[in-house]
Design a protein that fits this description.
The chain has 42 residues and is mainly α. The protein contains 1 helix and no strands. It starts with 19 loop residues before the first helix and ends in a 14-residue tail after the last helix.
């Protein structure tokens, strides 16, 4: 969907998962400037 709307490659990345290790790894990575999370606990 991001390609169809004109976003350049690698601007939007989706990482599905619910493991704390996943969130920690992307939040401390040196090449990641912003993280936005959406979802629900249900």
């Amino acid at each position: 969907m991001t390609i169809l709307t004109g976003f350049p490659p690698d601007v939007v990345n989706i990482i599905p998962g619910d493991r704390p290790e996943c969130g920690y790894a992307i939040s401390v990575h040196a090449h990641i400037d912003k993280v936005a999370c959406t979802g629900s606990l249900e």
